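Saturday, quiet lab. Running sequence design on the structure tokens for the scaffold JK sent over.
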């Protein structure tokens, strides 16, 4: 973001630099959920946009990691054949 700010400062946007960068950030987001959330934010500033987008992205990544972990755990569970399940039920009921 700092590099982008430095480049934009040479464009003569004056006091609109952060607003223009914020608009470009929103326009070019690939995650439509983050874009929607930012567009609904009242009085959005560039700092708020970056903070909110980073937080949502981190939450999505954490959720993905959790989902991957649960899939790995489920994949590691032994799969019993139907006859083994009946035997296991019989043993546990006695």
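Result came back. Writing it out in full:
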């Amino acid at each position: 973001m700092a590099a982008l700010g430095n480049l934009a400062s040479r464009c003569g946007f004056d006091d609109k630099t952060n607003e223009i960068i914020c608009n470009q950030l929103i326009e070019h987001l690939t995650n439509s959920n983050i874009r929607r959330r930012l567009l609904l934010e009242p009085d959005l500033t560039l700092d708020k946009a970056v903070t909110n987008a980073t937080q949502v992205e981190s939450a999505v990544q954490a959720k993905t990691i959790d989902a991957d972990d649960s899939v790995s755990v489920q994949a590691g569970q032994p799969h019993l054949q139907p006859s083994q399940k009946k035997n296991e039920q019989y043993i546990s009921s006695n």
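Notes for JK: The CA atoms of residues 29 and 90 lie 57 Å apart. The chain is about 75% helix and 0% strand. Ask whether to fix the surface positions before the next round.
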